[in-house]
Amino acid sequence: MSETKAGSSGHRSSVNRAKLYQLALFPMNNGATNVYFVLILSYVAQFGSSILQLGMFASIMVTVMRVADAITDPIIGAMMDRTSTRIGKFRPFMIIGSVIMAISVIALYVLLPFIPATMMPMRYIGFVVVYFVWVIGYTFQTSVTRAGQTVLTNDPNQRPMFTIFNTIGSMLGMGVMQLLIPTLKNMYNVYDEAGTLITSGYARPELYRVIAPVGIVVSVFLTILAIIGIAEKDRPEFYGIGGGSQQQVKVSEYVEIIKSNKPMQRLMVAGAGCKLALAIATNTTVLLALYGIVMGNYDSLYLPMMILGYVFAVPFFLLSVRTSQKLGQKASLTRYVSVAFVCYIGVLALLIMTDHTAGSALTLSFPYNGGGAINLYTILFVLCFGIGYGAYYATADMPIPMVADCSDYETYRSGKYIPGIMGTLFSLVDKLVSSLAQTLVAMIFLICAGLSELPDDATPYSGGLKVAVIIMFCIIPLLAWAATLWAMKGYELTGARMKEIQAVNACRKDAIADGMSLNEAMNKWTTVDQLPAEYRETAQK
């Protein structure tokens, strides 16, 4: 096939663009799984300790189960890469994952507490089995969020928009649950005649019987929206440069592929850093200890600070998308993680100064639900926390659309279309880090504050508990962001580089559609200067 013929196809597949509703709806899949991120990962340790009376076993098991995912994730990724059904490659995994998680959450939060305390071995066994089943379902659905982007769009101007719609979906899932559960929890608090809290709502099984079905309904609704969003693109003609006829990748080849894909390696480090910062800094127990124990009024501080965080995040969502479109996703991630890093140095300094004494000028204070007048400390904390939270919340999920870039790079590098294994490898990092976060929370409270169980509203203040909060709310996120900035320094997939890669992939795909073999196309076009003029023009826009 001549170069002219390769280009004479009318530049058929140079850019795969999504419709606005597709860009808006498909990211709801991440919102659907983030419902469970809150419902399980933020509360399962508290539930296991307080309701099932498993002590630290629940926190440790979260990490153990995620390590076991090192086996299941690549297997599920390989299954996805090899899947082709009447309803596509990705939608079956969304449906199966949603069903598995719904059933396992009901079994965990509703059924397990009915096992009597006299049968504690059955509680341990039931907890492990049900949690493992949930992890499988979580892998099924989360991996689609990463892998499905490759068929949705490869337009460098559209792909960054996934971040903002993904964040909207996350807020609809994670945000709704983060706001709803603490509110419902107050309805189940038990007080004595003097009005002193004696049993936290988090320690009552009735709370979990309510939040489990509510979470399931929210997640299923978001899953349905996501399925609608990807339906038209979940077809073989959008599967890589070889379409539905491409060669299957052997499982034994995956290690070599990841070893050779340097951008993916660095993105996994950056993703782990962003996820660890988000998982620990927004952990329910950490926030309860910060606002309820160190600063003395959880009910008046938690909700206003959560709302302020989301308000500050809005402009950073818009800024990050604009930066990504102009300079690439690497530049955007680096810029706003740096902003978060600087601001949280200020948060760290303010937390060190915090005085838990009632009425102190060195603590947060809002004229709401028993709080006091706003002071200078509150203004400084709101500014440092708000700007820092807004910046890192806007970047926390930014590595997700960057997985699609790494998958497209792999197609460019080797000709292989393996979004499933790329997505599940990244999902594995997500799970390991988020589960490590829960174990770190439990261990830091144990080491710094001597607590054998996670703190609740009734836990008294101590200097060690304040140190634990400072470590988890500030120092660990700062270290995680430092790792992210280091990883991005050598990340080669800039905005300009991705345009070149997409142009080469498009030229190869058109040539293969016109009858050229994959090997011939791979050898004929390796750099952008070798492409026909119309493809070079696309790379230069």
UniProtKB/TrEMBL annotation:
Location(s), subcellular: Cell membrane
Entry keywords, A to Z: Cell membrane, Membrane, Transmembrane, Transmembrane helix
Cross-referenced Pfam families: MFS_2
Regions that span the bilayer: 93-115, 121-140, 161-181, 210-231, 267-294, 300-321, 333-354, 374-394, 432-452, 464-488
Stated name of the protein: MFS transporter
Keyword Cell membrane recorded: yes
Highest taxon in the source lineage: Bacteria
Entry keyword annotation includes Membrane: yes
Membrane topology according to the record: Multi-pass membrane protein
Family annotation (InterPro entries): MFS_2, MFS_trans_sf, Na/Gal_symport_CS
